[in-house]
Amino acid sequence: MFRSTPIIRWRKYQERYNLMGAKCEKCGKLHYPQPALCTCGSSKFIAHKFKGEGTLLSFTDIGSGPEAYAEHAPYCLGIIQLSEGPKITSQLSDCKLEDLKIGMQMIATFRKFYSSGEKGAIYYGTKFTPKW
Amino acid sequence: MKIGVIGTGLTKFGEIWDKSLRDLLAEAQLKSLEEAGISPKDIEMIFTGNMCAGALSGQLHIGAMAAENLRLNVPSTRVEGACASGALAIRAGIAAIESGAAKIVQVNGVEKMTDVSTEQVTTALMGAGDEEVEGFQGATFPALYALMARAYMQEFGLTREELAAVPVKSHKHGSMNPIAQYQKELSIDDVINASMVSDPLTLMDCSPITDGASSIILATESIAKKLNNDAVWVVGSGQASDTLALSNRDSLSEIKATRFAAEHAFKQAGITARDVHLAEVHDCFSIAELLAIEGLGLAKKGEAGKHAAAGHHYFDSKMPINTCGGLKSCGHPIGATGVKQAVEIVHQLQNRAGKRQVKKAEVGVAQNVGGTGATVVVNVFKR
Ligand SMILES: [Zn+2]
Fold first, then answer.
1. How far apart are CA B81 and CA B33, in angstroms?
2. Lowest CB count within 10 Å: B198, B212, B241, B246, which one?
């Protein structure tokens, strides 16, 4: 369920702002976001920043979203396979559904997500946009 | 394993504005008791599947509520696994009987969803996904299944018309089910031309928001034989998990946990997919039904859409699927769905499914999914 307080969103800001994931110290596998365990069983990771480039695996649009995104709709959503391997669920910005095609190249862009009321905090993060 | 289903109970599914969460649960509970011909004090344990009562009705502690409804002080537990909560409650009941902890168990499912706005329901249901990976990105369940549908269409060449055959068949079955939320038939054009929810899925690809409750009574083999000479048996049960977020899985075009749960359940039941006469599967969205059919091994990967379009899944055809109308037409009161699937299979195997009765059905399977496939339960029933 969508629960937004500044602390909940602050905790993972590196992930969202900088596409910060993790590299397994033992086998070298890359993850986004950092899991508790690597598929090899190791729990030792070092931070790894992803380049923010990838391929669009699937996409759709959302006409009416969860409450926090009510004013933001409609928007596009996709799953992108990062060039380094892991997959990421992301809003797709600066594009319409008709512009999108499975297999197209996408790049990360820093965007506003939503704000909690007129005087509340504004939340930012990474979205992906087609690399025209 | 051989556990008897000795009683079933269902409320009407739909927008039941004059009944509360508690009213719905109590109605189903009393019906299953009445059908089993036993009294509340015969129940030794209760398990109740529910997902959203905390978020939508401000009510948790559903276990105690279910016991109070029967004026009992026995152990009573609420079970949650998103949309698979109902079938998980059945598994909890099975475990209680298999372990010898109880001889007669009541298993319920309940959800009250129509008291609040659609946005509030959408928000609550996203609790079944990964909050940080999917929720923050503004993902919704229709959107996540739309991502699966598009990936599947690209990979296997499934057409929009083939996919539309799923809800058309569901509504045909629902039109013959008196408790179904929607009892009106649909055409392929009705599905394709309905308002777009998340492209390529229209409103008619999506299960609705529903109130309802369901209940069954499980008992040991010896008690079931004594009480009921027409008991249906649970002979296999499997459960599997996968990543919460769709994007953390290898494939977007399959629900792997269905395969794992089915392998376990079929092995325990001593059957293969060929022995299955009918199945109730989790069609929260049209694409999910095709993924379920393939995961259960009832069609080869990429071919379920062809079978659907050819009409093989109608109650009077080769491989009846979702004879109750499925989640789409019968309705999808989240926690109640898994138990309702079991009720439909039991009624079919007992030859009491009315106009939608499948002929000579002896083995039925129920597949219940939580989220986009992070939890899957498969139960096998035999006459
Ligand atoms: Zn590793």
1. 25
2. B241
CB contact, 8 Å: B311 with chain A?
no
- Alpha-carbon dihedral angle through residues A66, A70, A75, A81, given to the nearest 10 degrees: -30
Say whether pTM exceeds 0.90: yes
Phi-psi region of B325 (alpha: psi -120 to 50; beta: other; left: phi over 0): left
Which segments of chain A does DSSP mark as H helices, in order? 6-11, 13-18
Tell me which architecture the domain covering B137-207+236-382 has in CATH: 3-Layer(aba) Sandwich (3.40)
Which carries the bigger pLDDT value, residue B2 or residue A1?
A: B2
Domain locations in chain B as residue ranges: 3-117+210-232, 137-207+236-382
Q: Is B135 on the interface with A (CB under 8 A)?
A: yes
Of B230, B213, B215, B217, which Cα lies nearest the Cα of B36? B217
Is B83 one of the annotated active-site residues of the chain? yes
ipTM: 0.96
Q: Give A57's contacts in chain B (Cβ within 8 Å).
A: 151, 252
Question: Residues A73, A118: one domain?
Answer: yes
Write the pLDDT tens digit of every residue in B254-307.
999 999 999 999 999 999 999 999 999 999 999 999 999 999 999 999 999 999
C-alpha A30 – ligand 1 centre gap (Å): 8
CB contact under 8 A, B127 and A1: yes
Determine, for residues A89 and B134 on separate chains, whether the beta-carbon distance falls below 8 Å.
Answer: yes
User: Does the distance separating the beta carbons of A88 and B247 come in below 8 Å?
Assistant: yes
pLDDT at A3: 74
Residues B210-251 pLDDT 10s = 999 999 999 999 999 999 778 999 999 999 999 999 999 999
Chain B residues with beta carbon closer than 8 angstroms to that of A36: none
Residues A7, A28 within the same domain: yes
Domain harbouring A91, CATH code: 2.40.50.840
Residues of B in contact with A67 (CB under 8 A): 119-120, 122-123
As for how many domains chain A has, the answer is 2
**Overall CATH class of domain B3-117+210-232:** alpha beta
Distance CA B280, CA B214 (A): 15
Tell me whether residues A79 and B120 touch, CB distance under 8 A: no
CA-nearest of B343, B300, B296, B305 to B323 is B343
Q: A132 is in which domain, residue-wise?
A: 51-132
SS3 state at A76: strand
Same domain flag for A42 and A93: no
Higher pLDDT, A123 or B108: B108
In this structure, the answer to whether residues A40 and A91 fall within a common structural domain is: no
